[in-house]
Amino acid sequence: MTARFKLNSSLAADTAFVAALDLCEVRLMNDANYPWLVLVPRLADAIEIADLEADVRHLLIDEVARAGDVLRDVTDAEKLNVAALGNHVAQLHVHVIARFREDAAWPEPVWGAVPRLAYRSEDRMELIDRLADKLAEGSG
Known about the structure:
Blueprint: H1 9-14, E1 15-20, E2 24-29, E3 36-41, H2 54-75, E4 79-83, E5 94-99, H3 121-137
Antiparallel strand pairs: 1-2, 2-3, 3-5, 4-5
Helix pairs in contact: 2-3
Keywords: Methyltransferase, Transferase
InterPro entries: HIT-like, HIT-like_sf, HIT_Hint
EC number: 2.1.1.-
């Protein structure tokens, strides 16, 4: 969208590309404890949802909902957690996390509950492919 958009280095290091939607880059968090998407609007200097123009804000929420639907469909999640915290990384990004009653943090938030568990490469690629395919089904 914006030529000046640059993905934050922490987000780049902690996630893998899944798909590009109209507004957001969809990325998979490298934590096999929880299937976890991060949506990053491709807007330069975006920090807060409240600062977005109404039409862009609505598109962001639509894309978050779409990502949540896909994540729930692919993982059979019992619950979705959605958050835009930005305490460590100011760049606007929205977490969409699949939750299960048997996951390591249930019913608490996932942050800091257990050490991050990196995906095995083949498991990560399989999940990315499934998510990307489902996201593509709903496009255009």
